[in-house]
Amino acid sequence: MMEIDSNQSTTSSHTALSTSTPGHTSVRLNSSDVLEDYLLSPSTAGNLLHFAESTTSPRGTHIPAYQLSSSPPSIPAPRAMELLCVNATKAVRGPQTPARLKNGTGGAYILRNEKREPIGVFKPADEEPFCENNPNGYTSSGAVDRAKKRGVPAGESSCREVAAFLLDHGGFANVPPTAAITLSHPAFAYRSHDALHPKSGSFQQWVPHVAESWDFGPSRFSTQEIHAIGVLDIRVLNCDRHGGNLLVTEDGHLVPIDHGYILPSTLDEAWFEWLIWPQAKRPFSAATVQYVLSLSVEDDVQLLRGCVWNGRPISAACVRVFRCVNVLLQLGVRSGLTLYDIGLLVCRMDPHIPCALERIACEAVSRAAGGSCPAQTGPFETGSVLQDEQFAAVKSEERFQKEFVELAAAVVERTARCKASN
User: Which of residues 148 and 15 earns the better pLDDT score?
Assistant: First the structure.
């Protein structure tokens, strides 16, 4: 269960930080909420609804201000994001002080409404492991790297939290609504010499739950739900799926959270708790097969490129990894492989032995580079073969993708044949 820092009080007289912003208009949201100052301005954030905590209106009063980007018509800012941001600003300006969670390596705060009910969890980007305001001591880049993954840069985990929600099309895996947001509060972690300033991060809707999945045996969970979560984990190559970030609701449903370590630029860090669950070896339902095969990898790539990743676009290596693992997933599902079969192709079962995904990618890079295989002195160099340094010899991304698809199809076909003969 989530632990809260007991040293923090539950009430506050916090006054919202205000900044002067011109060009105010009045717009009615899709919800019933009406905000007097609603800002529609272009942003590099693409499809994300981004929220500025407060502003000073022409009348001199403190009121919320939204900033909606000019998003592509196919990727609207979901209504759930609007409601999340409305509730979040009410919470930080209300009497309840954000309560920092004690477990985890980064800063995470429960926000509550005026009834003291939890409404969501805010994770500031500058409090992630190895960022300047991390409250748990993980602030030095030279420290023992227990908190972050090689393929996920420090400061980009909150962006990935939002991306997981956006990629969970139709709520198939039940990822809670998550929005990019900017908030300030004295309870957040600031350096002693810093003035109070807004922090960008992710805000995820609170999920009432009774336990985490590792508090129970897996037999009580739905095969369909496990498959749906597993499909998402493979699509984003989740590097941190364990029993503590699968919440169990009162009626026994699973809800996946904590998606800060997805979409890596490396191939060797994925791990899925459900690999050891018996449901992973059962065949996919027709609904799951239809869902996976209906996914458009290129549409999702464009979605990811529309997001901001700590002030930068998503890296080319992350896009390569995403394309490759999604190709492998769709080939596996089409060939009748189970979630377990596909999971084995993308996970290292021995930390020193590259998985099939890594070997396929290395061979595809070698072929696309004209037979010049990247220098590899160990298994971890194999895992980073799609990063720019090792990918530099490849002259054409299209050639690499073609080679990868052919090699992956052959591996999947061989896996399916071996399975059928056993």
Answer: 148
